[in-house]
Amino acid sequence: MNRKIQICSLVLGIGAFGAGCGDDSGMTTTTTTTTTTLPDMGGVDQGDGCPASGDVMVMGDITTDTTWACDSYLLVGKVFVTGNSTLTIEPGTTIYGDTDGSEVAALIVSSGSQLEAIGTAALPIVFTSGNAVGDRITGDWAGVALLGNATLNNGTDTAGVFTDNLEGVDPTDARGIYGGNNDASSCGHLEYVRIEFGGDEFSTDNELNGLTLAGCGSGTTLSYIQVHRGKDDGIEFFGGTAGMDHVVISGASDDSLDWDQGWRGNVQFLVVHQFEGIGDAGFEADNYGSMELATPRSNPTIFNATMIGTTTTRVAWSSVRAPAPPCATSSSPASAASPSTCAPPPTTSPPSGRPTSPSSAASSSATAPTTTRPPCRPTTTTTASSSRPPSRTLPGTTPWPPTR
Questions:
Q1: Distance (Å, whole) CA 58 – CA 79
Q2: Model's pTM, two decimal places?
Q3: Cβ 111 vs Cβ 177: under 8 Å
Q4: How many C-beta atoms lie closer than 10 Å to residue 257's C-beta?
Q5: Does an H or E element contain 200, and which?
Q6: Full DSSP string of 22-81
Q7: Cα–Cα distance measured from residue 195 to residue 229, given in angstroms and rounded to the nearest whole number
Q8: Nearest to residue 134, comparing CAs of 45, 57, 27?
Q9: What is the pLDDT of residues 136-191, one digit of tens each?
Q10: C-alpha to C-alpha distance for 258 and 238, rounded to whole angstroms
């Protein structure tokens, strides 16, 4: 794909992402990791359980409102957010997908529950591989899935309301069911979030996308998001009416943006960057397979989008892990990043309240510690507490409603 296709003009203020997409640079330092297991996932779970070093290990279901405010968490197997609860992740938190366990790691927010992951340009929230920097590759873990109860155009018909189940989750498992009749519902709020190196299979031919949005309604907020080097699609919508803005999808091994089952959301300020030889379509646009008359019909509106091809050869899936070309890091200016591997910088100044200086963009690229991460096993156990304040001082931010 030796060409650049520009659909229309691009005005993009995503300084938090361009400097961090190629964090698999090959630089590693061996350290010892200590993991703390919190058996009770309810309430503000950081409490006295934030380890001095290492990650908080998370496994099983989150069934009550929970806040993650430690520096880093390790997802072991499928972690479901259920029971109409909300998982809140604070700015600057890194969530690793375990690569050593018998079950593929994923975060799945079931219908009725929500994910509130609101970072900042300086402190983005990062979901990434549990492997060491320089040893990460597509499909190291599964990814993030948000399930809602907005309308679909196919599935299991119950009194005229369609529901379906997330691929790779047992069809009899209620935690994986999505769809309904509430198009104004919300799956949560993601802002300044990066998801990378996902797409592993739950079962044969059942991969998760970097970010999956299934039956999410228009109350869902998705802004300033990058999905990088997913083994399947970058982002896929299954029905619903959720929209998104200020999005970068880079290095997907299948399609960058995919939709079906009657998706009707809006997208503005989108960059799609396919790598030569490993991606399929920039967009895959379906209604429901060959059923073009199924209603509601897929009818998204996409504007201010740029699609980019490259002549750079990349390795998507191989027994030999290949480091990415260098990107800017926190110690180098964002302008020094390779334009073929990083999201382009903003072409105009972002609105008031967003950082604009190169140092702000560069500092936001600190995504994962440059350490060799040994297989994680719990070494200490603590009881969750709701009395401890967040583990970092959060800067003030000015909310800005993006153009819809």
A1: 7
A2: 0.70
A3: yes
A4: 27
A5: none
A6: T---S---B----EEE-S--SEE--GGG--SSS-EEE-SEE-S-EEE-SSEEEE-SEEEE
A7: 9
A8: 27
A9: 999 999 999 999 999 999 999 999 999 999 999 999 999 999 999 999 999 999 99
A10: 9
